[in-house]
Write a structure and sequence with these properties.
Strand content: under 5%
Largest sheet: none
Number of helices: 2
Low-confidence stretches: none
Distance between the termini: 43 Å
Helix content: 55-70%
Oligomer: single chain
Order of helices and strands: HH
Amino acid sequence: MPFDLIVYLSRGKQLAYVCHPPPASMPRPWGNLLTVLVSTAAYFFAVPASNTP
C-alpha cells in the first residue's frame, strides 16, 4: 500500500485523465467487451471439463 501511494503521488499528472469520461461522440469498445465475455465463459466451461477423467 505505501508503494502504491508513492507511485500515485509521483505520477499524479499522468493519472489525472482517469476521472474524465470519453466524449459521447467516441465509439464504444463493445467488440472488446464481447470478446472478453466469450473468452471468460469458455474458460469457465473448459476448466471443469479438463478436470474430468
